[in-house]
What does this fold into?
Amino acid sequence: MAPSTPVRHAWRVLTGLLAITGVLFGINALGVYAFQASSWTPDLALDLQGGTQIILAAQTTDGANPDADQLAQAVTIIRQRVDASGVGEADVATEGGRNIVVQIPGQADDATRQRIQSSAQLQLRAVLFTGSPATSFVGQDGQNTPYPTPDPSLPATPTASPTNGSDTSWITPALQAQFLAYDCANPANNPAQAPADQPLITCSDDGSVKYILGPVELDGTDISNATNGQEQNTGQWAVNLVFNDKGTDTFGKISQRLYGAQPPLNQFAFVLDGSVLSAPSMNGIIVDGRPSITGSFTQESSKALADQLKYGALPLSFTVVSSDTVSATLGSQQLQVGFIAGLIGLGLVAIYSLIVYRALGTVIIASLGVMAVLTYVTLCILAWRMGFRLSLAGVAGLIVTIGFTADSFIVYFERIRDELRDGKSITAAVEDGWSRAKRTIYISKSINILAAVVLYILADATVKGFAFTLGLTTAIDILIFILFTHPVMQLLARTRFFGSGHPLSGMDPEALGAVYRGRAQFRAPAPAVSGRANRSRGEAQRRQTIAERKRAELAAAQGNSRSTKEGDD
It folds into this structure.
């Protein structure tokens, strides 16, 4: 005999849950063994693990303290760079009027330090001239001879006024002499501070090419978004820019001017903090405002640059004063206490479930176990993909969810029992109870998720971890109810132990107030004449809903009224 439709549906859903679990573990295994970037344990935050403290000092031309607004803006930008998702648990604060203290969980690598320190001032300049980075030439005697120091008497003003950023009139004799003597390897040369309205001598970021560039025509303030991705033709990692309306219009005019010009006047340089990242040739007119920066990028470096450009340039330049390792502010003892509290909560829920719902309590325990597994592997994946760090506030969010989940089980099981009291079969009670309970559960979980989202958006960074784990586990809770709890109940309702209403099953119709007549039929409870029946009726009355209790009281009052009238007659 073929299995019934609910049974087939239950097995399909459980198979889907098993597939989802396998996919999650497969994704994390890929991160652990293939990319070596993930782990089988969630990453911990500063308060539980410790990390790296970097102190940055703001640099000003006169040595005075920077403006407070500029320092506050720099704090915001740095926080976005190191913790774009808001759940990396990084701490960024000002100190002493000119310093910024950055605390990052774990060990900070060179890329992270550069991401923090770099001002990320992007400029787009037209290329006027290119050459080798050499600062000497081979003389008549066959020896390398350094280019002479530029003569101050050389003309530094263009003889004709340049008409645009690509006009070679910008290149004066003085600028030519400076270009020849310019040393790309000399740290004293700081092109990042060059005037925006004047030509610039600089080098590529790897020091292989030397450039003369025209004035700034676009900068980072004209960028509305920046993302990283791979080029379709070459597979190289690139940074994809999206200009705002002003930038789109300006870049369209620039591309029209450069397209078709002779090299290197057809090139346009993307300059970051004074160094040329890329100087591609203009191969067409770009009017959609979506150019790409290509170069020797990796996935990590392109993502770092995209974040820097997206969140904006720092209003100040900074130098690293110190970089030290800091210990955990709370430590492993508080983490152990948090997990012990969670285990106590789970234990109390399990004991309560077994006492009140008897064998049905095992469904609650199994559902919580599946939820714990999915939550754990999801946290591991999020630590790899979005830098999530589990703080003590996040642990609190996990513990609070236990109570919310238990409340949903109570709603579901009590709905099933209400259907049994109405005289329905156990299989029908499971289906109808789910139909009635899921609306309440969905509304309750939606409110929890909404509260978590609002808290995540509005709360301080120290509370974001709580809001994130609360919302995440609530979403997983809904998934478990749909893909595990209800299908398991559909299968259990068709077993002999649960389907026959065994007293220990938690779905005994007689104990709930309905009398069992056959395999799938019940009748209304008969008047209680024995002690056991009295106890069953008392339990049924205690478990009645308010509406059911009022109907019973009204029926009893009407019965007494009729009895009184008959006695009077």
User: Anything to note?
Assistant: Confidence is low (pLDDT under 50) at residues 515-530. The chain has four domains: 5-40+330-499, 51-106, 120-313, 526-568.
